[in-house]
Design goal:
about 475 residues, 14 helices, 13 strands, alpha/beta
């Protein structure tokens, strides 16, 4: 029996009953990393010296997990998969990691990501491409690529990721697992390598909704080191709130995104057909599902708003990556020459373009037209969503217009296409714009590849959204699914 394929509560019971030991799980997890990593490249570091802990009443005690490599871990190399941070070893723990350790969780390794978390493919890591375990010719999605793959393979029952636009929820859909981004501030960002501070969230991958709730319960809490952390939800148990009782709940979907006539590609039409079949099952649970229309101009603005704000904030946040304070020192006769050499040779082309965009929109003469206007339109979108969340318990939509694309068809350059395809591929950023709780669960297969649906709700309404996702998950039949064979 492969215990690592079990849910957290089953694993905990097996540990308590003495069927297995923490040491056994650690060894099994490390063996799986070594078995799969040449094909998948999910990990850039294995914690070979990971030690077992005492098994307590805490569900997470003694169970291994994986950590995305942009979250600070004291004494353990953390590079954000960028050559500018090669061999960087933090001197402090991120709050989320510190909280997990308090609950007896055991970090087994650091997972690969798109460089500095600024990508959506898993193809821009300085360690190479992270391959999708369902089909190694396809992408995992990003930026939390390695964490998604590690959970899909059963290397660990859960893994930590970060989400700035969809970096947990899209890879979860592509890898057939659950991806949960909690409300902004529910989990402290202290120790997360900042990408875009107003959009960044720390969240979790798991193979079922309840496991995600258990992990976030362990990580969440007010933190004096993060002024944006939520102060009034410490006593809320997300796990205890899950009971599957959803009769009378109301969800909506966006008409413009879910109209198959708006799409040219057959994958999108198939995904929307599957989505409509799922909505019937949702209604059978006693949930009312309604259609709502949103101004196309607002939907069409999601991608440019995200690009503008995220690039601007990234440019500011990463201005410390000079090669002077930390990271490999650049060459040159002056400080400026050393910084230029460090950044020219250290960053990939994708990162350089994002910094150029960010610098452009932050220039004094451009701020009003680009950056400040982007923030105004972001507020318009959030105002509309808040209005709808006053009427409904949540928004339900497909995660993507396709399953995980083939790597040969992916590029880090901007490609213009059908406007609705762009909207479908980027609507998850709404959850980051408003800091809303948002969760992806598996919803079937096309081309023998997993797909997902997403449920997003009002700020701080995490318990409600998790309970709805839990009920829907139980009706779909993809709970706890795992890759059986790497192709």
């Amino acid at each position: 029996m492969d215990y690592l394929n079990n849910d957290l509560e089953s694993l905990h019971n097996s540990l308590v009953n003495g069927e297995i030991s923490s040491q056994y799980l650690i060894a099994n997890s490390i063996d799986k990393i070594k078995l799969y990593n040449d094909k998948i490249n999910a990990f850039n570091l294995i914690c070979e010296d990971a030690q077992p802990v005492d098994i307590t009443e805490d569900v997470l005690s003694g169970i291994p997990f994986a950590m995305k490599d942009n979250i600070s871990t004291k004494g353990v190399k953390t590079t954000s998969c960028s050559n500018t941070l090669k061999d960087y070893v933090p001197v402090y723990d991120a709050t989320c990691y510190k909280n997990l350790k308090k609950h007896g969780a055991i970090m087994i390794g650091k997972t690969n990501l798109d460089e500095l978390a600024m990508g959506g493919s898993g193809m821009t890591c300085n360690t190479g491409v992270v391959n999708n375990p369902w089909d190694t010719k396809r992408i995992t999605g990003g930026s939390s690529a390695g964490s998604a793959a590690a959970v899909a393979l059963g290397i660990v029952p859960y893994a930590i990721g970060s989400d700035t636009g969809d970096s947990i929820r899209k890879p979860a859909a592509y890898c057939g697992v659950v991806g949960y981004k909690p409300s902004y501030g529910l989990v402290s960002r202290y120790g997360l390598f900042a990408f875009a501070s107003s959009l960044d969230h720390i969240g979790v991958f798991s193979r079922n909704v309840k496991d995600s709730a258990i992990v976030i319960d362990a990580m969440k809490g007010a933190d004096e080191k993060d002024m944006t952390s939520i102060r009034d939800m410490d006593d809320v148990s997300l796990t205890a709130s899950i009971n599957g009782n959803v009769k009378g709940k109301k969800l909506f979907y966006i008409k413009e995104i879910c109209n198959p006539d708006n799409y040219d590609n057959e994958d999108a039409k198939t995904i929307l057909k599957d989505f409509n079949d799922t909505l019937k099952k949702v209604q059978d649970l006693g949930i009312e599902v309604c259609e709502e229309s949103i101004d196309f101009n607002l939907l069409n603005a999601i991608k440019p708003i995200y690009d503008c704000i995220s690039c601007a904030e990234a440019t500011s946040n990463d201005s410390n990556l000079t090669g002077i304070i930390f990271g490999p020192r650049g060459k040159g006769a002056s400080v400026m020459e050393m910084m230029k050499d460090h950044r020219t040779n250290g960053f990939s082309s994708l990162i350089k373009r994002r910094f150029i965009i960010g610098s452009f929109v932050l220039q004094k003469e451009n701020q009003e037209k680009y950056f400040l206007n982007a923030k105004r339109v972001r507020k318009l979108i959030c105002d509309k969503m808040n209005e709808l969340f006053n009427k409904y318990d949540g928004l339900i939509l497909p995660c993507s217009a396709s399953c995980a694309p083939l790597q040969e068809k992916c590029t880090d350059k901007i490609i213009r296409g059908n406007a609705y395809d762009v909207i479908m591929e980027n609507h998850l950023a709404i959850g980051n714009f408003g800091g809303y709780p948002s969760i992806t669960i598996p919803n079937g297969f096309i081309h023998e590849m997993p797909t997902g649906i997403n449920i997003t709700g009002a700020f701080k309404d995490d318990a409600n959204i998790l309970n709805i996702a839990y009920a829907i998950e139980n009706s779909l039949g993809y709970k706890n699914q795992i890759v059986k064979e790497v192709k």
